[in-house]
Amino acid sequence: MRVLVDGRESRSIDPLDRGLQYGDGLFETIAVPGGRPRLLDWHLERLAEGERRLGFPASDGDTLRREIDIVSSGSRCIVKLIVTRGSGERGYRPPRPARPTRIVVAWDWPATAAAAATGARVGWCRTHLGRNPALAGLKHLNRLEQVLARAEWDDGVMDEGLMCDDRGHVIAATQANLFAKVGGRWATPRLDECGVAGVMRRAFCAWQAGRGAPVEELAMTRAHVEAATALLLTNALAGAWPVSALEGRPLALDPAADEFQAWLARA
Amino acid sequence: MRVLVDGRESRSIDPLDRGLQYGDGLFETIAVPGGRPRLLDWHLERLAEGERRLGFPASDGDTLRREIDIVSSGSRCIVKLIVTRGSGERGYRPPRPARPTRIVVAWDWPATAAAAATGARVGWCRTHLGRNPALAGLKHLNRLEQVLARAEWDDGVMDEGLMCDDRGHVIAATQANLFAKVGGRWATPRLDECGVAGVMRRAFCAWQAGRGAPVEELAMTRAHVEAATALLLTNALAGAWPVSALEGRPLALDPAADEFQAWLARA
Known about the structure:
In chain A, 26% of the residues lie in helices and 28% in strands. Chain A is of the alpha+beta class.
């Protein structure tokens, strides 16, 4: 593992950093499947959008690209990029100007990634997602809901858990976006109240749109998901991961997952 | 400022700590007005309750007390205690067993604390609080909503901002609990869906109950607040801070604030 903090090899963060104090920051998880970061432009676009919405100064894209190259150094790995609002005085008030902290970490490509081909066994989480349009869509550092949801199982039988909001709308899996085939067409939950607008979700939507079958963004209910003829999950690491079972009920793997993976490998 | 990390003087946290990665942690802000931490038992009780609800191993109270004494070293200061789930593997799944990180920081007693006597000028924040019973009441590290709310003003005219949830229920100020005198009795918002159950809120409720006038926990609306004959804010640092104006409309300072401060000084 390699870690750069503000461009320097380091394993040290200021305990007063607002990323730790308040979760006042953003992150990106970037797959580097063959030595080159995948969909990097879109990751940096999403980060920039998050910085704009949280009132951070904009990161320099060239610096980020250079540091991602340094930590990954051409190997197959996964890079996590964190940008926080930096340190400041005590209290919630954001320092003006803020001096963000930049953390870039590379991990070895995880062994579990290979398992994605066999299909995901998913179930419902009890922990729900709070709704807040001010934070919806962002990949920010306030992730306790996902932590609590992911703590609900550790049985080796379930691979991912689906999370709903308090209205019963299905939003996403703990670390993936969700697509459901309903009436022969792919739909995905609307993310205007909560959830993370994943880069791989964007890619899957773009691919489907390019085939003339645009994905519908839906106020998706559990009934939609339970009636779906196929489900798949997307995230930066797995690409598209077809769902093989929902609460123990087998589901056919849709060929769209493989077709998308092939498109992604070419793109 | 003095900082202990896991008992040692340090300004360094692992960038992979889950407190930073996910906001997977808890904190307490403890006033040490005269060299002795105020309401420390209740702070440690709330921390323990948070640890239980998040599935952390329980912190050792004696260790925490000792470290709070070390950083404060008998001086007038404010101590912030953070407990995170520590470092672990990549991903939301909590490590089992977790090895928490403990951070204890002492700051000089802030100059702004003196201003509390003059009354707080408050207004409404646009940023609302998302609701999640799994996190309600806890003083956890996911505080982006408060950061966004606190970023709404920087005018020197407003001291605090009141936050509502998406149903229009008033929950709290950005860094204080709220009490409203309605029909001659003090009421405070219910915190079963969001908000932080403040230690000073508990103290104010205990004091009122001891006087035979228990505080009512209410699904408080903006109408309640706008009709209140008096408002006051509580937090660990200020104690009770009477509100002198709501959105520019003057409010009489209720004597309860001073009476409570006197009780608190004796307690």
